[in-house]
């Protein structure tokens, strides 16, 4: 509610609490994603908790700070401000599906000596993260403007990345989990805030200057990563051991493994206790039993170039609303779509012949779904770009 006066009877005899909302750059002094400083116009937000027995109210003044605030005032303010943040973010609770129409609307070009292997979105910091296998870094772009912001320098070649968003909107616990191959094979977890504010050159943040939350070397070649946030578990495909290793997301300790017959590249959760894994040239569906064991109950697709077949399924993502599975069919230079039941829906794309166009891919690698807008992002590796589709 926005108000400039309080003549309405509901506001009579209700104490007003004023605070200054100060803009806090989240990514370093000069590293802002579409953040605008307050204008000179004075605006007061009046907050009322209608669920309390006696409605409490407070005002947030964008320009003045009340100097005579007491502990009780602070409690009321904090309570109402937290409810405001929850309310403002509730609009994202409704997931948006990918249409499967593959309507191109944007591309982020990358330098020709850079190799985009994976792409993910960090909503907490409003950015797009692209692993750059050949330059030992993660390139960071603004989620809205798509402009390049910085590069996070890493100790080895990054193969995959995943963002651990906080469960509570009040928390600043956003973390980045990524796997690296040569020369230092490991999986790392860092605080996102520290990475983006690490000691840096004008264009590069250096992760080597910061200590990770944890690091594990229990891998031969880590590829795809997925997080089961409510259970604090991280799923990592280990290509050379033909297994999906499950880690405790807080400590990095190995909990258990899912053994497969083929080399696995990508993993995602379809729902709680339901897992999709790409291995060999097939997709495998696992469900967790009551005893906690992961049991395979379905697999589909086969090696080939015809519709419904796969040749090098590098990355996959499950649309949590439709339960469709989008797979980057790397060696066939296309994206395939399947249902969770294994039915082929459609494919999009083909090999670039000369100059890359929007309908062509050249060895597409990582993909991710923006479930707030329904957009699909594709790391088109050998075309050196990130493609955006509606």
TrEMBL record:
Source domain of life: Eukaryota
NHL repeat feature ranges: 300-341, 361-390
GO molecular function, one term: ubiquitin protein ligase activity
Keyword Repeat (UniProt): yes
GO biological process: proteasome-mediated ubiquitin-dependent protein catabolic process; protein polyubiquitination
Keywords: Repeat
InterPro entries associated with the record: 6-blade_b-propeller_TolB-like, NHL_repeat, TRIM-NHL_E3_ligases, WD40/YVTN_repeat-like_dom_sf
One Pfam family it belongs to: NHL
Protein name per Swiss-Prot or TrEMBL: Uncharacterized protein
């Amino acid at each position: 509610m926005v108000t400039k006066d309080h003549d309405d009877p509901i506001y009579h005899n209700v104490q007003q609490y004023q605070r200054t909302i100060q803009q806090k750059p989240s990514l370093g002094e000069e590293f802002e994603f579409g953040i605008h400083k307050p204008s000179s116009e004075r605006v007061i937000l009046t907050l009322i908790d209608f669920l309390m027995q006696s409605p409490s109210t407070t005002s947030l003044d964008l320009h003045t700070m009340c100097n005579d605030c007491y502990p009780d005032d602070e409690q009321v303010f904090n309570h109402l401000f937290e409810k405001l943040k929850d309310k403002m973010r509730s609009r994202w609770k409704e997931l948006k599906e990918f249409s499967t129409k593959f309507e191109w609307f944007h591309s982020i070009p990358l330098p020709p000596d850079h190799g985009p292997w994976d792409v993910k979105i960090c909503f907490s910091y409003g950015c797009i993260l692209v692993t750059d296998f050949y330059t030992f870094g993660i390139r960071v772009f603004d989620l809205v403007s798509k402009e390049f912001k910085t590069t996070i320098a890493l100790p080895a070649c990054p193969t995959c990345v995943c963002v651990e968003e906080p469960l509570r909107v009040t928390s600043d616990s956003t973390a980045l989990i990524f796997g690296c191959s040569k020369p230092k094979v490991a999986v790392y977890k860092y605080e996102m805030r520290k990475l983006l504010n690490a000691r840096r050159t004008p264009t590069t943040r250096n992760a080597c200057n910061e200590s990770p939350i944890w690091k594990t070397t229990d891998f031969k070649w880590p590829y795809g990563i997925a997080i089961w946030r409510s259970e604090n578990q991280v799923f990592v495909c280990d290509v050379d051991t033909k297994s999906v290793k499950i880690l405790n997301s807080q400590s990095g300790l190995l909990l258990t493994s899912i053994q497969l017959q083929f080399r696995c590249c990508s993993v995602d959760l379809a729902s709680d206790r339901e897992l999709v894994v790409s291995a060999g040239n097939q997709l495998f569906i696992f469900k967790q039993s009551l005893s906690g064991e992961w049991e395979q109950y379905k697999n589909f697709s086969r090696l080939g170039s015809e519709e419904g077949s796969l040749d090098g399924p590098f990355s996959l993502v499950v649309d949590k609303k439709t339960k469709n599975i989008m797979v980057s069919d790397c060696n066939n230079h296309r994206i395939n779509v399947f249902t969770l039941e294994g039915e082929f829906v459609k494919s999009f794309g083909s090999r670039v012949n000369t100059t890359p166009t929007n309908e062509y891919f050249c060895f597409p690698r990582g993909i991710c779904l923006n479930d707030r807008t329904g957009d699909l992002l594709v790391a088109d590796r050998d075309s050196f770009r990130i493609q955006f589709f509606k």
